[in-house]
Amino acid sequence: MLTNEPELIDEVENLGKFATSDHGLLFWKMNVDKEDASRKAVRFDYNKMDLNGIRDELRRCNWDDNIKGNVNESWSLFKRRLLDLQHKYVPIVRVQGEKWRKEIWLTHKAVRMIKKKYKACRKYRYSKHPACIRVDKKDHTEIRRAKYNFENKLADNIKRDTKSFYAYVISKNKAKTNIGPLVDKDGEVISLNEDMSEEFVNVLLTRVMKVFLKPSGCIKDQWINKYVIL
Description:
mainly alpha; two-stranded antiparallel sheet; two-stranded antiparallel ribbon
């Protein structure tokens, strides 16, 4: 018995050897923390949230006084404000259990074949049984057909529905994309998250000012009413 945490194992007891083998039987207690299942059963019900109340709270908020400092401090204040509104206007419901999340390309026929496969495996308890092999082949064929048809449909409709196509492609990406390091206008390399966020804000503000400023220096009111939504 190997472990790098000695306090994890407690009360090791040797129960002797098996009757037909030289192997011994050990009994021990393992000290682990059990997660409270009731914590995972609580969810926010966004379908019944008071959206008008949230909008009224955001309109009454003075952002010039509440958001100050650098980007990280401003984001922390803004995030804390949104979380307070979430707990205030979004009701909480209890979920009985986690539901099985099926793939987006699975059809009803493929789901029925998967259920038949599980039913056959539970019945015969042997994966090499002819019935299990037969239903497994049908299940495999139907799953491949459903996935092939779904991906072909996405590819055919890429001109009309680009968003769905790239959302599906990104969901299949196993590599984690990291941002940075960046190079600022002076040619210096920026690698810290705080410095990169500050550089992003500066570039964004520069672009916004070039696009939305009048020659007199005032931001167009119609653009604010169109793009700023509370």
